[in-house]
Write a structure and sequence with these properties.
The complex is a heterotrimer of chains A (255), B (368) and C (234). In chain A, 50% of the residues are buried. Chain A has helices at residues 6-10, 23-55, 59-71, 74-84, 90-113, 117-125, 130-164, 173-181, 188-219, 222-232. Chain A is elongated. Chain A contains ten helices and no strands. Chain B has helices at residues 41-48, 71-76, 93-97, 99-104, 108-121, 138-150, 168-185, 196-202, 221-226, 231-237, 241-246, 268-278, 323-331, 353-367; strands at 2-10, 16-25, 30-34, 56-61, 64-65, 78-82, 156-160, 188-193, 205-210, 214-219, 261-263, 282-286, 292-297, 316-318, 337-342, 346-352. Chain B folds into two domains: 2-246, P-loop containing nucleotide triphosphate hydrolases (Rossmann fold), CATH 3.40.50; 251-364, CBS-domain, CATH 3.10.580. Chain C contains nine helices and no strands. The relative contact order of chain C is 0.13. Chain C is elongated.
């Protein structure tokens, strides 16, 4: 392990031996590659999920899209996207967005469906229009599950973005693949870089997850949160419900 | 058979569930532990098979200290029935009942025979043997629970609100059947309930416990009802204590009044004489073989008497009914008179409200 | 339009000519490797997860930290973890670019899902059933095997399903560290700019995942006959 070139690299200089961009830049890049697809996925998936959940049609599709997503190796998609479009990185970006959608879509749908029908009934009985029910009742009550889906999605994108570094996308995956290419098993520089980069990306993923957890805490009304905690404690991972059932401690595996 | 000797159960946070319990359960008797929630009745029961261990004091079963016995062996010898039953969902009825026999290593045939025998004993239809618990009704599941506890014919049984999970009608039926069963098998039973009526019905002796696990009174139901030990017991017995006592006395303990009885074929004049002697304006008409035909006003009598004009009695009681049931029947009767028959319409006499209250007074005096 | 774009690489898409004798033969090898890696990872995962879960259920205090620890591992991107393992593990077989490195990584991922689901499955056993079993004289060990595990099976198998499908995807990433199964087609196709090759790998991985998932659903049904007639006799 060769630690000497690491310290300047960490604070922003190019890594001497392997010629990798400084860490702060990589961090920012990775943040970009996560934030943009997740936001885009929210913009796409949230309305659809809310609508499908509200009218309660097309649910099986909404649930199975996540199970399907789990079965698709993202590496293959990224590689095909890259080659098919002559090495442009935009389709890779699109792939990132596509992979970020399923957890949010499924969780939004399930979150809305799980709202107690009695509450929906009471709201309608009080004279709320469909739109108002959605806005005032279903969305707030579905927030915890929706946020869980967003967190799952974000963690997944962190991983997929790491993979995308293989085809040239920047971010924290770059040093990992550069290290791999320069014989990481035997080259002390490469080994050090890889270890550091992996730690960085792991910490990055955890920070992303935890910060979204904080956001969730802010967004979800506290009374609701306690109820959800009661209901969710010990909830197992259910193969058919997809990420909706996966709580803070565990999300989809990052591929 | 089972003794509690200065038994105490205290939890680490300071709560005392059972406080200095001294109790003896004789062989073959049903002892009911009853009281409000928090009185330690379930805790006490569960210390007998060491599901809970006492903080101090000794519990013995058949002379052996439970703390000195291997818990697994101890439990295989004690039948255990709980309110939620706890049937194994992944096993059929037959497999559930066969649980302990299997643990003890009985051979297949012996198990099969025993299972069939028990299914009949608890009143289940043959077909249930291969069904799974979720396919059975609540009452059926409860019976399977009892059958499972009886499988190895243990001498001791622990029952914690065993009939609690079903509706009152089914519960009453299950209680009756269980009493009938107990009359045959004479097991030593510790029965826990919060329902004083169930305790009175099921128990040979009742132990009333108060919150904090303190024993208030331990006597036969009749004695407790007649002479409650303190205000708590009185309170717990409820307001209708007198009525509850009536439910313990069968009608046959009350000497029935013979009443103005005539047989078919008697002359009308003789009949009127009998009625006059008894002070009534009507007579009871029996057939030649002493079965009850009904009653008639003496003015409507044929001569000689036939049974044609006999009216049926509005209120009828059986010798085995409780006085409480008799009183219930008499409450609605505007004559205040019930006819008492045995099975087969055999006339036994007349029962009035005054007789019932007199009997109750006598009963109170003798209990003093 | 997709077809035209994909054809820009100079070859037609889909290029059925890919399925020549050599490639098809190699395909079988890759499929076998893929299945082996998945199967082994699941097996090892179960072997570790089950005792851990039993311990976690008995000693509740262990559960949270264990869950947190495995959860952290879970968040690490697989490519990163695999390459890290390659860097840190000794360079002798079975490690290095051998099967050992990949298996360690794959097993770590199966572990969390299986651990969590096994605990949840054991927790899902109704307390009155465990109480009745103890009171009837089951020793804790026998009770675990004859009563608790059979009843925990549905939830455990749900976990195996997720773990299986996930692992099948993860195996492709091990192509970076010397294994890969069908994932090898990704890298070789990438190197030769042959989209058809990548597509074959992609489609077959998905098909494999679907088939395995289905097989597990069917075996669950066979292993838990008591939950099948639910609703028939209520």
């Amino acid at each position: 392990m060769n630690w000497a070139p690491i310290w300047p690299w960490l604070i922003g200089q190019e890594h001497e031996a392997l010629r990798i961009t400084g860490v702060p830049t990589l961090l920012l890049e990775h943040l970009l590659y996560v934030a943009v697809p997740v936001v885009a996925a929210i913009v796409i998936a949230l309305p659809i999920g809310l609508w499908v959940g509200h009218i309660n049609k097309g649910g099986t599709l909404a649930i199975n899209v996540s199970n399907a997503g789990r079965a698709i190796p993202s590496l293959g998609l990224i590689l095909i996207a890259y080659i098919a479009f002559e090495g442009s990185l935009t389709p890779v970006f699109v792939t990132l967005i596509a992979m970020a959608v399923p957890p949010i879509l499924t969780n939004t749908y399930v979150g809305v469906r799980e709202v107690d029908p009695e509450i929906r009934d009471a709201a309608a009985g009080m004279g709320l229009s469909g739109w108002q029910i959605l806005r005032r009742v279903e969305i707030p009550m579905a927030m915890p599950v929706i946020m869980a889906g967003i967190r799952t999605s974000a963690v997944q994108v962190v991983a997929t973005a790491t993979l995308a570094a293989f085809v040239g996308l920047g971010g924290l995956g770059r040093p990992i693949f550069t290290g791999l290419a320069t014989s990481v098993q035997f080259n002390p520089d490469a080994r050090t870089v890889v270890v550091v980069a992996v730690v960085l990306v792991a910490v990055f993923a955890i920070v992303v997850e935890q910060s979204l957890g904080v956001v969730e805490r802010l967004v979800v009304p506290s009374g609701l949160r306690r109820l959800q905690e009661q209901q969710r404690s010990g909830a197992p991972v259910n193969a058919d419900a997809g990420p909706a059932q996966q709580t803070e401690e565990q999300s989809t595996v990052t591929v | 058979m089972i003794t509690f000797d200065a038994v105490r159960k205290q939890y680490p946070d300071g709560t005392v569930a059972v406080d200095d319990l001294n109790l003896e359960v004789e062989e073959g008797e049903v002892v009911v532990l009853v009281g409000p929630s928090g009185c330690g009745k379930t805790t006490s029961m569960r210390m007998v098979n060491r599901m809970i261990e006492p903080t101090s004091g000794t519990i013995t079963v058949d002379g052996r200290d439970v703390m000195q016995t291997d818990p697994v062996k101890l439990r295989r010898d004690i039948g255990y029935v709980i309110q939620q039953i706890g049937l194994f969902p992944h096993r059929t009825t037959a497999e559930n009942i066969a649980t302990v026999p299997e643990l003890l290593g009985w051979d297949r045939k012996r198990i099969r025979d025993r299972v069939d025998e028990l299914i009949a004993t608890v009143g289940l239809p043959e077909g249930v043997a291969d069904r799974y618990p979720h396919q059975l009704s609540g009452g059926q599941r409860q019976r399977v629970g009892v059958a499972r506890a009886l499988a190895t014919d243990p001498s001791v049984m622990l029952m914690d609100e065993p009939f609690g999970a079903v509706d009152p009608i089914v519960r009453g039926r299950l209680q009756d059947e269980f009493l009938r069963l107990q009359a045959q098998v004479h097991k030593t039973i510790v029965f826990v309930t919060h329902d004083i009526d169930e305790a009175i019905k099921m128990g040979d002796r009742i132990a009333i416990l108060a919150e904090g696990g303190v024993l208030q009174q331990y006597e036969t139901p009749a004695t407790i009802l007649a002479k409650p030990a303190n205000a708590f017991v009185e309170d717990f017995l409820g307001e209708e204590r007198g009525l509850k006592r009536l439910s313990l006395i069968p009608v046959k303990e009350v000497a029935a009044d013979r009443g103005p009885v005539v047989r078919v074929g008697t002359s009308a004049a003789d009949a009127r004489q009998i009625a006059q002697r008894e002070g009534t304006d009507w007579v009871v008409i029996l057939s030649e073989d002493a079965t009850l035909l009904g009653w008639t006003f003496i003015d409507d009598l044929a001569d000689p008497i036939d049974g044609a004009a006999a009216r049926p009695f509005a209120t009828e009681v059986n010798a085995h009914d409780s006085l409480r049931a008799a009183l219930d029947a008499l409450v609605g009767s505007w004559t205040g008179v019930a006819v008492r028959v045995s099975d087969g319409d055999h006339y036994e006499g007349l029962v009035t409200r005054e007789m019932l209250t007199a009997e109750l007074r006598e009963d109170t005096k003798s209990a003093a | 339009m997709t077809m035209a774009l994909l054809a820009q690489t100079g070859r037609p898409f889909p290029d059925w000519a890919w399925f020549n004798e050599r490639n098809v033969g190699e395909l079988r090898e890759l499929l076998i490797e893929h299945i082996q890696l998945t199967g082994l990872a699941l097996l090892l995962g179960l072997l570790i997860a089950i005792p851990l879960a039993v311990a976690a259920v008995r000693w509740r205090r262990v559960y949270s930290p264990l869950l947190a620890f495995t959860g952290v591992l879970f968040t690490v991107p697989s490519a990163a973890l695999f390459i890290l393992l390659l860097a840190l593990l000794p360079q002798r077989p079975p490690f290095g670019l051998g099967i050992g490195t990949s298996l360690v990584g794959l097993t770590i991922y199966t572990l969390l899902i299986l651990f969590r689901n096994t605990v949840a499955g054991l927790d899902s056993v109704p307390p009155e059933v465990t109480e009745a079993a103890t009171a009837m004289g089951y020793t804790p060990g026998r009770r675990l095997v004859r009563v608790e595990f059979p009843l925990a099976l549905p939830v455990i198998i749900a976990g195996v399903r997720i773990a299986a499908v996930t692992t099948i995807g993860l195996v492709t990433v091990t192509a970076f560290i010397g294994q890969g199964g069908l994932g090898r087609l990704f890298l070789s196709g990438f190197r030769t700019q042959y989209t058809m090759e990548i597509a074959v790998g992609l489609v077959l991985s998905i098909v494999l995942a679907v088939v395995v998932d289905l097989a597990l659903v069917l075996s669950e049904r066979r292993l838990t006959p008591w939950s099948q007639s639910r609703g028939a006799g209520t």
